[in-house]
Description:
alpha+beta
Amino acid sequence: MKMVITIALFAISIGFTYAQNVGIGTNTPQGSAILDVTSTTKGLLPPRMTKAQRDAIASPSEGLLISCTDCIVEGLHQYINNTWQAFILSSTGNYGTVVNPVTGKVWLDRNLGATQVATSSGDAASFGDLYQWGRGADGHQLRTSPTTTTQATNWLSGDNPWSGSFIINYSNWLNVSETYMWSGTAAENNPCPCGFRIPTNAEWEQERLTWSSKNSAGAFSSPLKLPLAGGRNSNGTISLGAGVYWSSTASSTARRFVITTSDALMDSYINKSFGYSIRCIKD
């Protein structure tokens, strides 16, 4: 009895209450919350750890949260669908989703970085960003980002001189060939929001086969409303007139899905230094 009273007095002294829910900093926690932390001067700090420490967690539970200190995308990471995924902050606000009624696949309703769903194939506000294959959202994907001729030596941005710049004059922005940076459980550089990823060749082809016409008109009239967002060449210049979308499938080079006014197809492999659009598909 003495222990119970002591604990109760301690709990009251720090503003901690317990009934069927818990309040810290408040004696009246919200009824719908199992834990209600209230403060106007302090934040909530999750466990902080390196990527190696994160990956060493034995049998992580679905939904587990940590803060990664040295991942390509630092900050909050959540364990979802048997893989760790970073919380990606979008400069364009919340994305919506669309469903292809034929395939049942769920996609984001616009390209990564786009400010709105396309209103036409040439709607510039729907174009979004242009990513080099396998890179995370480190700033290089912005159409106005500077260029550099310094080739990357590792995945991580940090204080590297190439961070935030579009790397030009190479067949690969990275000086080693990696095939899994955007695919599988090792997709550390996945720029899509949590629960989404970059589609495979097969998923793009499955989508294409449902279109009324295999060209830009069919792409726009499809549930995805894919615009002709152009691409960025390996010299840093931007070209318009086609829609070019990365797939996650790659070897020493990478696959791209190309849409023009006359055609839509999975193109041959191309160098990873080019910058193309990303449309994310749900896991």
